[in-house]
Amino acid sequence: SAVISQKPSRDICQRGTSLTIQCQVDSQVTMMFWYRQQPGQSLTLIATANQGSEATYESGFVIDKFPISRPNLTFSTLTVSNMSPEDSSIYLCSAGQGDNGQETQYFGPGTRLLVL
Amino acid sequence: SQQGEEDPQALSIQEGENATMNCSYKTSINNLQWYRQNSGRGLVHLILIRSNEREKHSGRLRVTLDTSKKSSSLLITASRAADTASYFCATDPMDSSYKLIFGSGTRLLVRP
Predict the structure, then answer these.
(1) Mean per-residue pLDDT over chain A, rounded
(2) For A67-115, how does the pLDDT look when each residue is reduced to its tens digit (9 = 90+)?
(3) b vs e for A9-37, b when ≥16 Cβ sit within 10 Å of the residue's Cβ?
(4) Local structure of residue A58 (DSSP, 8 states)
């Protein structure tokens, strides 16, 4: 299984600022994803982080608000831009491994963000 | 949008009892995965069941999948206080690129 780390583990930020979250996988993986989990809710996919090209965003999420980078097969960043209190959530990255299209996804520990 | 709905939303049982959680989904899938989350932390992968499988076991966990009913269940036998957590099902729809769609989750409390 893939071991995934995220930095920072938590942060408290002021409205209007931006925060970049880093995700590091201990092995090369095909797929990397970013999810948001709002308080007391389930996970919602923000985007697929594509290596060497622009991320693929889900409905309701845009690149200007959540720019994503993936420079190689083990690393990705998510930036939460121009933050507001509604962005207070846990942000999780995941990585997919598997053969024959049967991808098991492993998750990082998450970044808990509070926006004041 | 969430594809999966889970029930019950919350479950409270005594240590040693079995816990059953159910998940329903809407579209055809490649596989379905179950995860555990402790107190808003990261997700721990429990088990993956493929669309052509009907039942899978891992330790005290038993997962079933009924693709005709678009439903799955997770059974935890002989529960322990350490099993207290939120449990999520997640589906990999056939029309997606390995993107997981998460259910609403079941909050399990195992009383010592």
Answers:
(1) 92
(2) 999 999 999 999 999 999 999 999 999 998 766 556 788 999 999 999 9
(3) eeeebeeeeebebbbbbeeebebbbbbbb
(4) P
d(CA A42, CA B110): 21
Q: Name the phi and psi angles at B82, rounded to 5.
A: -70, -10
**CB contact burial B31-59 (16+ within 10 A = b; e otherwise):** bbbbbbbeeebbbebbbbbbeeeeeeeee
Q: Name every chain B residue with its beta carbon within 8 A of the beta carbon of A4.
A: 42
User: Which residues on adjacent β-strands are paired with residue A70?
Assistant: none
Give me the residue label for tokens 């555990």.
Answer: B36
The single-letter code of the amino acid at A51 is Q
Q: Is A61 on the interface with B (CB under 8 A)?
A: no
- Nearest-Cα residue of chain A relative to residue B104: A42
Burial of A82 from C-beta contacts in 10 A (0-12 / 13-18 / 19+): exposed
Alpha helices for chain A (secondary structure H) = none
CB contact, 8 Å: B30 with chain A? yes
Q: Is B43 on the interface with A (CB under 8 A)?
A: yes
- For residue A22, give the H/E element and its range: strand A19-25
Please report which residue ranges of B1-112 form alpha helices under DSSP H: none
